[in-house]
# Entry
Amino acid sequence: MPYLFVHFREKSTPDGEQVYFGLSRDGFHWEEVNEGRPVLWAYYGDKGVRDFTIIRSEKDQRFYILATDLSLAYGMRNQYHHSWREIAVKGSRNFAFWESEDLVNWSEQRMLSIGTEDFGCMWAPDIIYDRKEENYVIHWSSSHRSDNYEKKRIYYCRTCDFHTFTAPQLLYEKPDSGVIDTAIYEENGKFYMFIKSEENPARVQLMRADQVRGPYETIQDFDESMKSLEEGVYEAPTAMKLESGEWCLFLDFYGVKGSGQGYVPFVSENLDSGIFLRSDKSFSFPYGFKHGTILQISGEEYERIKAHKWEE
# Structure
């Protein structure tokens, strides 16, 4: 069962914060696409993109990529003055967006204006299709003017066409901490949200709800299975269902500088159990994939991506 991994790379130069593809025939062993170079470039907004999500449309089988509009290579030295606080308050309230019919020919980058002037930087968008409402739910993390941009919460909006969007609403707020990096999956009629808590604990957590919009409750067994992990060095959860029916959760390790960063895999029989076992030896990557999303693809789509001659 082939998979596509859309991600960026941890580099200090602008080419790192662009769109990269990784491919796998089985979900375990991954290879680079385009000789490890970007497949798409951001020419608008901050001219850098991070924190990708990709989805296959339920209605017309088109593909959509959404990303955080942020360049640390340019912006941290320039408009953000080496300040994460300035990014949180003054960063982009837009998302970068591309669409395609075949995964190799992509539209021009478009900027989606979803946030209002009350939001700070809008981070790490993710998309899930709500079958009950027959629309897409885009959810992300942001600080807000209401508390002077102190605590990040999760917000969401809905769209049917990625041109018009409902007003943002609060999806989840953790009472004792900011939260970032949501990824939501549906299994057996329930919704499971992986989320990074910034404190208490500073780890990824797993939550469950009967509807996409919640309310979400914490799955304590997941906290138990993750308690041996060092706090404050894992984020950006993304998951996929393996051909065996098991789930693989990837957590982005950022506890060192440079090339040592990248995804670490954990495997579970199902999401509801909350029990994930670390499985490093079963997986291999050509380099440190950073904050992305995995899409199951067909064998034909795998071969098309692999054979495509990407523009320089």
